[in-house]
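Please predict the structure of the following assembly.
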Amino acid sequence: METRTPAPGLGKLRHMSVSDRIFYIFISIIGVCVFIITIYPIWFVLMASFSEPERVSRGAVWLWPVGFNLDGYREIIKESRIWVGYRNTIAYTVAGTLISLLVTLPSAYALSRKDFKLRKPLMIFFIITMYFSGGLIPTYILITSNMHMNNTFWVMVIPFCLNVYNMIVCRTYFSVTIHPDLLDAAKMDGCSNFRFFVSVVLPLSKAIVSVITLYYVIGKWNEYFTALIYLTDTSRTTLQLVLREILLRNETATYVSESAIRMELLVKYTSIVVSSLPVLILYPFLQKYFEKGVMIGSIKG
Amino acid sequence: MRGLKVDLKRNYDLYLMVLPAVVVIFIFSYIPMYGVQIAFKNFKPVLGVWNSAWVGLKWFQRFFNTSYFQTLFSNTLLLSLYSLAATFPIPILLALLLNQFRSDKVKRTLQTVSYAPHFISTVVMVGMLTIFLSPSTGLYGHLSRALGFTPDNLLGSSNAFRSIYVWSDVWQHSGWDSIIYIAALSAIDPQIYEAATLDGASRLQKIWYLEIPMLMATVSILLIMRVGNLMTVGFEKVYLLQNNLNVSTSEVFATYVYKVGLTGSPQYSYSAAVNLFSTMINLVLLTTCNFVVRRLSETSLW
């Protein structure tokens, strides 16, 4: 196996000491194992989703689709609930991300300004909420009985739109990258803070804006808890709620015929693929931004 | 005060920029904090938070007198400790492993692959577990039959619950969690490596004397954060993995708070009290941890 692994330095193996040679072979093997363990479950789901239902439940699928067919996908196209969920989730994600950005970025900039008088007290005001919260029930009472926001579009996009951690990451980025001289120069030209933010700060901060956008998009796409608690109306349902119903429904209890049970299993595979598709397609392009995000987050602001 | 007024006039737009965030946090974080008083009251929805009658520590006493107190406490703590023992060191080892591959291509590929599971939603993750672990139709079932074992119903087993929870977390998040360590390792000056090679250091010695010390600052900060959050076990995954068969090990604070507070006949005040109690334990843990580490070293959260 190790001969097929393009491990670095392996070509130079001859020049190494015996112990280093053993070491390289060893880490190459572990590397291959990590690769397989990580990719295989995902690969398997994808392959099974293109296979024949009967063979999937019999365990005939291992590496490639067996009895290639699209029955699962045909079946899922008929499931209207999943498309209602899809449509709603797209709406919540788009609107939610926009609102989150509109709240997060300007406040992060204001708080990054050292000359902003309320900077310290406001930071404390925000940070406290990371360590202490009223908890589930008081929040639930507020949103349902006081504000009547449950089962509305707004409950998915307003109450939890600001992630304080994301805001602090942005604030750190702004205070590190935006040089104070830039502001002084702009002020000389009579530029307002707001215009400076829009036409100087944001264009200079494309990296962090993309990172935070991605964090919010992924977070909202995968959101489950808020929907579980505040959305009981099926017309408002989200993709994750529908998925939960499909994925965790008991195979034997609801379906009588053998072939129906098998189809049910296949639909589980296809629904995973269909729901994770947007993220999976975007992923390779966005990966470099995620890393940047974690690095910026690790700077102590 | 006068300084503030002047600043308000000069930088009024900065105040406007921070206003939406302040309003949202005030309404959806601070008002619920005010609402926490229902833990000490007999909350009646018709009366509202303010007008409900005070009952002192009634709900806390009731909670401490049930067998739930002990169960929840030990379940939450054990799940957390198990999780910490596995999901904390593995990303460090993974980062060290990735750092050994000096071909950028190999390193990149492995990294890209290892982050991918992080973006799978909890619902899908649990869905995959139910499919894979099914004794009749899942990979686990087929594999154990092929090897001559009789597959158990792992998802309905209270013994297997913690391992399923923890090791699926390892699979899902280790790659992502290793990014920060990889960043720390990439800060090592290549010249130091060369010097070490000239001195005849083996790869293992380089890991031990160069790379591990380089990670220690990051490790200690992240460890405080993890230990401080020991009593917080995410609701979603436990809730989704929970069923009647494994409930004896899978009931944790978060799921219990949800169950008594929002399902069946809701007991708002009691649930809020249990929730407040777990938040308090957390705060105490975090502060103690931070204090101890600050005493022992220079690094601390605040």
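Chain B has two domains: 2-54, 58-296. Chain B touches chain A through 90 residues (CB under 8 Å).
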